[in-house]
Amino acid sequence: MGRFDLRVLAGALALTVFLLPDMGSAQLRQNYYATICPNVNVEKIVRDAVTKKFQQTFVTVPGTLRLFFHDCMVQGCDASAIIQSTPNNQAEKDYPDNLSLAGDGFDTVIKAKAAIDAIPSCRNKVSCADILTIATRDVINLAGGPSYAVELGRLDGLSSTAASVRGRLPQPTFNLDQLNALLNPLGLSQDDIIALSAAHSVGFSHCDKFSNRIYSFSPSNPVDPTLNKTYARDLQGMCPRNVDPRIAINMDPNTPKTFDNMYYKNLKQGKGLFTSDQILYTDPRSRPRVEAWAADNAAFQRAFVAAITKLGRIGVKTGKNGNIRRDCAAFN
Fold it and tell me: 3-class DSSP state for residue 13?
């Protein structure tokens, strides 16, 4: 998608009607459950469940983080991405762009929900959307990233369709204009986009998501010239020309299990895995921010906290527009 896709712009603009952080986000606040679940530390219960899952597998970190992003981007932060498909409805999670979401992310939320509902005074009082928000903060921190106060008070969404995902998630081939066109209407600035992109500091990707950059970038340049040549050869060694979609590699070749500013240092060296990563450095409009955060991890972390907090305000459901699911994977 080297050419700007007007369908992406149209889809993004359509989202402004109901996804901008407006009236729904006004109900969000810290310590929301202090009076709803008295004498119960909801965030600690989630943290304990997330920590246990994290100790079982590191995939919990990128799985949960990506689930949060994919959820908020489509119909707002309402846990609609967790809903299972039924014979009568193909849910968001079964849209092609979501098929690579790690099951450990879903499992983390479901187990945390079970731990909360095991307490009678708190049963069916905490939304799956809020649990996902808390769990996302916790996996970031467990991987070495910042801890921060989360805003809570979301309801769970009442709709989840695969069709609703189309055109609403950034693609690995996107350039800066396409990223801005998709995310700016949701209330996310270019700096927010650059900060949130550092989620690629942890986790892995399958070879078919970037194979065009190492084998068929253009007739004159089979390998993307913005790729570090040694890194490109390393990628070719791990990903054969006839791409096996089951093969996955770390998105950060240096500190793949640490949430840090190495992401930006890699971009400066031509080691951004996706076009949408490397463009943040090759485009002169975003390069200064990449350079600043490559040099200052604390500044990056502050920016990331601000950006993910704004992300969590998108499309918050209130009143009759949502409820609290008994089962995160199914509507009541």
Answer: helix
